[in-house]
């Protein structure tokens, strides 16, 4: 008898025996259930990102080149009239931040963070536009270090921000390295500041407890 048939018979007998003895599968622990769910969510996330890449990757390179990134960002931006592309500065910023390979393109592993950043910016575009207009005293379309300090002081409830803190935010938010913050860099600075304040408060609470 072929080996495959023997295996099938043995499997059938085991299944019958298990049914006759009231066999129940071993319960899965809650930790294992969470692990399986996390793995499933990660799989779905990767499938979604790969679908996006496939939809815009017209020359089948497996990644999105600059013009294809522009098309994607244009399509998902609901904060501007349909068909309005991002500015060159905005695309430069995103590629500078998320093109880890430095090849002027975005692959599936880089795409998620890029989309998250773009969505956060477009959802709050009006707020960042108004803040830039308010604090851009020099009318350059960007915030200098002094203008950034005034903006952070506003975020800080009017309490003056130390120069060292302004320097830290500027150094991490000035992606283009020109000593000023454009609209998207302002969004990055805002996120950095809130994270900084939260960490500062946590450290202060720990010291109080001790």
UniProtKB/TrEMBL annotation:
<dbReference type="InterPro" id="IPR018247">
    <property type="entry name" value="EF_Hand_1_Ca_BS"/>
</dbReference>
<dbReference type="Pfam" id="PF13499">
    <property type="entry name" value="EF-hand_7"/>
</dbReference>
<feature type="domain" description="EF-hand">
    <location>
        <begin position="44"/>
        <end position="79"/>
    </location>
</feature>
<dbReference type="Pfam" id="PF13833">
    <property type="entry name" value="EF-hand_8"/>
</dbReference>
<dbReference type="InterPro" id="IPR011992">
    <property type="entry name" value="EF-hand-dom_pair"/>
</dbReference>
<feature type="region of interest" description="Disordered">
    <location>
        <begin position="12"/>
        <end position="35"/>
    </location>
</feature>
<dbReference type="GO" id="GO:0005634">
    <property type="term" value="C:nucleus"/>
</dbReference>
<dbReference type="GO" id="GO:0005509">
    <property type="term" value="F:calcium ion binding"/>
</dbReference>
<dbReference type="GO" id="GO:0051480">
    <property type="term" value="P:regulation of cytosolic calcium ion concentration"/>
</dbReference>
<dbReference type="GO" id="GO:0005829">
    <property type="term" value="C:cytosol"/>
</dbReference>
<dbReference type="InterPro" id="IPR051001">
    <property type="entry name" value="Calbindin_Ca-bind"/>
</dbReference>
<protein>
    <submittedName>
        <fullName>Scgn protein</fullName>
    </submittedName>
</protein>
<feature type="domain" description="EF-hand">
    <location>
        <begin position="123"/>
        <end position="158"/>
    </location>
</feature>
<feature type="domain" description="EF-hand">
    <location>
        <begin position="86"/>
        <end position="121"/>
    </location>
</feature>
<keyword id="KW-0106">Calcium</keyword>
<dbReference type="InterPro" id="IPR002048">
    <property type="entry name" value="EF_hand_dom"/>
</dbReference>
